[in-house]
Design brief:
Blueprint: H1 16-26, H2 36-52, H3 54-61, E1 77-80, E2 83-85, E3 87-99, E4 105-118, E5 122-123, H4 127-135, E6 168-173, E7 178-182, H5 185-194, H6 205-211, E8 216-218, E9 223-225, H7 228-242, H8 249-252
Helix pairs in contact: 3-4
Length: 258
């Protein structure tokens, strides 16, 4: 089994021959030397992949949502086009003796990391695949080799532009955390209806302009009516849930007062 050695430098092809030899053994060809042609053909195919596909994946990794910078010397250990061996922790299970609160001895099974070893060949054909492997604990190199942890740091980006403050708010619920803010008028109205409160914020200009197109308009439900009959039906339905909070047809009237 191949394991990490502090004296080893893992280039992109460091695991290629061990991988090909393992594949040969799996095909029950033990004892046969690995043909040079097999290595050359594999290397040629991988070189094409490294030239035409890997640069695009690396660029995608540096962009949102991944923001992973991978240096040239941290390239995956390729064993085929779009196939590489990453590195995983090697665990050893052991038993340790401990004492409980009553000073009675007991033994506990623990898992201990004793090193790193390569995975089998896994597919790496997209940025999301590789990012997922790295986020789940796999590594391009064992820790300590080429300081791989730097690849997992976010790529430098310009500081984000802070979002504009929400234009609508309600401060009538100090017992629930104080100030509630809302990005739009509809959200603010839904809050008022839920808490059975009269809106005390000024509606946006577009709502006022739309309300002027109707003879009756309900600013609590943000809806207009072309007839008294429709407005009366709306009041009846609205008062089932909001009671006297809901405006009357007179209060909904958009006719100018003399």
């Amino acid at each position: 089994m191949t394991t990490a050695s502090e004296a080893t430098t893992y280039t992109w092809d460091a695991l290629l021959i061990p991988y090909l030899e393992e594949q040969q053994r799996r095909h029950r060809r033990n004892g046969e030397p690995l043909a040079e042609r097999v290595v050359l053909d594999a290397r040629k195919a991988i070189e094409w992949w490294r030239t035409h596909e890997w640069p695009s994946i690396k660029r995608d990794l540096a962009q949102p949502p991944f923001r992973l910078n991978i240096a040239d010397h941290e390239e995956p250990c390729w064993v085929g086009p779009g196939t590489a061996c990453l590195w995983q922790q090697r665990w050893k299970q052991g038993v340790v003796s401990k004492m409980d609160d009553q000073r009675r001895p007991y033994r506990e099974i623990v898992n201990e990391v004793v090193g790193w070893e390569p995975t089998t060949g896994i597919s790496i054909t997209t940025a999301s695949q590789l990012a997922g492997y790295l986020r789940n604990g796999l590594r391009l190199r064992p820790p300590g080799h080429y300081a791989l942890e730097a690849a997992l740091q976010p790529a430098p980006t310009a500081p984000p532009t802070p979002p504009p403050p929400n234009p609508y708010f309600c401060g009538r619920h100090p017992e629930k955390g104080g100030l509630f803010t809302f990005p739009n008028w509809e959200g603010y109205l839904a809050h008022c209806r839920h808490h059975r409160e009269v809106p005390d914020q000024q509606p946006p200009r577009e709502v006022v302009e739309r309300a002027r197109k109707y003879p009756y308009f309900c600013f609590i439900h943000n809806v207009g009516f072309d007839s008294l009959r429709g407005a009366e039906q709306h009041v009846r339905e609205g008062r089932r849930s909001l009671g006297a909070l809901h405006p009357t047809t007179e209060q909904m009237s958009m006719k100018e007062q003399p």
